[in-house]
Amino acid sequence: MILNKLYFILPLILLVNSCTEGNTSSAVVDGDVETLAAVDTTGLAQATFASGCFWCTEAYFERVEGVKAVISGYAGGEKPNPTYEEVSAGATDYAEVVQVYYDPEEVSYQELVEVFFATHDPTTLNRQGPDIGAQYRSIAFYRNPEQEAIIRTYIQQLEESGAYKNDIVTEVQPFERFWEAEAYHQDYYRRNPNDPYVVSVARPKVQKFEANYQDKLKPEYVQ
């Protein structure tokens, strides 16, 4: 179990930058974008989480040993074919999510749930740092009763341990459908290192994750 909480409160000065205000108009788009169709996910297990801006969430899980692919997208809503413009404007019921493809022989679903809770604040309703709105709400999606039990048990453990001053507001929902986000969102953190949001918000959080959880990282991220 991850005992140390990663999430920390950013200085107020960082509130000027949000995921919605990122440099999407000039985002790097090149030939190495790994969309869902381009990734061989045969035989891999899946997990889906919403924990704020998917640019950050994707970067965390990409670093975890045993995770083979992470795709940014949308889930938790009903409208077919949602777009980033609709979701980021709060015009749908969707949340920004990541779809994690992993080898369960290398990393367990339990460990992914622990990473999920360690990398965001599950006590803030419809908000993560400078990102405000239901599209940034905390959701753990489950695909079977076993996954649901793991999520609910871990939430109970966190609450009983007093890890958080406030109540956990993370939604626990059955997974229904994932819509892949536009190509320029995929691997956004790596491919847009100079984006103001990446520099001021995402990078400090990702670097702290790397520093605190060396035992969970792929070799290339171990310091």
From TrEMBL:
It comes from the Bacteria. Keywords: Oxidoreductase. SUPFAM superfamilies: Peptide methionine sulfoxide reductase. Gene3D superfamilies: Peptide methionine sulphoxide reductase MsrA (3.30.1060.10). This is Peptide methionine sulfoxide reductase MsrA. Signal peptide: none annotated. Has an important function as a repair enzyme for proteins that have been inactivated by oxidation. Catalyzes the reversible oxidation-reduction of methionine sulfoxide in proteins to methionine. It catalyses: [thioredoxin]-disulfide + L-methionine + H2O = L-methionine (S)-S-oxide + [thioredoxin]-dithiol; L-methionyl-[protein] + [thioredoxin]-disulfide + H2O = L-methionyl-(S)-S-oxide-[protein] + [thioredoxin]-dithiol. It is an enzyme of class 1 (oxidoreductase). Its EC number is 1.8.4.11. Residues 46-197 form the Peptide methionine sulphoxide reductase MsrA domain. GO terms for molecular function: L-methionine:thioredoxin-disulfide S-oxidoreductase activity; peptide-methionine (S)-S-oxide reductase activity. Belongs to the MsrA Met sulfoxide reductase family. The active site is at C53. It holds the Pfam family PMSR. It comes from Pontibacter ummariensis. InterPro entries: Met_Sox_Rdtase_MsrA_dom (IPR002569), Met_Sox_Rdtase_MsrA_sf (IPR036509).
